Amino acid sequence: MNSIHDMGGMHGFGPVQRKDNEPVFHKRWEGRVLGMMMTMSSHLGGNLDNSRHRSESLPPADYLGLGYYEKWLVRMESACIEASFVSREEINDLMHGKDVWAEDRFAKAVSAETLVTQLKSGRLSARHISEPPAFKISTSVRARNINPIGHTRLPRYARGKIGIVTADHGGHIFPDTNSCFDGENPQRLYTILFSAQELWGNDKNPKDTVCIDMWESYLEPA
User: Fold this and answer.
1) CA 155 to CA 10: how far, in whole Å?
2) Parallel, antiparallel, or unpaired: how do β-strands 219-221 and 140-143 relate?
3) Does the structural domain 140-221 have CATH classification 3.40.50.10420?
4) Distance of CA 45 to the CA centre of its chain
5) Which CATH superfamily does the domain covering 28-121 fall into?
6) In DSSP terms, which residues pair with 219 in a beta bridge?
7) 215 vs 17, 188, 201, CA distance in Å?
């Protein structure tokens, strides 16, 4: 979707500041949010693409103003409200120190051992598909210039640009439909190499390139 989260190539936000020896969590509550998100995911029945879409749907001012794990907390709250696990009023009560008790909404606890196993096994997105590839390695392709209203992994700065297919990863879950629970609809996933000059203009270093993984429906013959 076209929103403030798609910041690639946008001016005015300054460089990415990388810190040496930066801690995994800057505050204890950030780790707790990660733990809540991991344990709640099995009860909410969501998926990674839907979680990303929830973050992308935040108002621009909120998206820019909230920290990384603050966005996680907000999207988890919205998912819990939609699933009727909790109401907005109950969340407000909790924020003001009031007790909220609902015996009919208790969920089975997830043990630390189970969570560690889930993290180690991962959530693979690869899926078998029988359709032959539409594009071969080393061929030129153009990223389609589309503006979907829902979730997509096709960045704005690459739309309409020409690149070279460098890898074929086989079938993978299609995030655009998976994000709205409209099916996994696996498609072939490719790695496309773009020159910096193609993406940003002829004044860029001709030796610089960017590789982007793109699903087949994002592409067309160049």
Assistant:
1) 11
2) antiparallel
3) no
4) 16
5) Nitrile hydratase, beta subunit (1.10.472.20)
6) 143
7) 30, 6, 25
Closest CA to 154 of 192, 200, 127, 126: 192
Where are the chain's structural domains? Answer: 28-121, 140-221
d(CA 216, CA 110): 37
For tokens 């909404």, what's the residue? 105
The two structure tokens encoding residue 33: 């949010």
CA–CA gap between residue 139 and residue 132 (Å, rounded): 15
Contacts for 190 with CB less than 8 Å, ≥ 6 apart: 133, 135, 141, 165, 166, 167, 168, 169, 213, 214, 215, 216, 219
Rg of the Cα atoms in the chain: 21
> Tens of pLDDT along the chain (222 residues)?
788 899 888 888 888 888 899 999 999 999 999 888 888 877 777 788 988 999 999 999 999 999 999 999 999 898 888 888 888 999 899 889 888 776 666 667 778 888 788 778 777 899 999 999 999 999 999 999 999 889 999 999 999 999 999 999 999 999 999 999 999 999 999 999 999 999 999 999 999 999 999 999 999 999
Q: Whose structure tokens read 């210039």?
A: 145
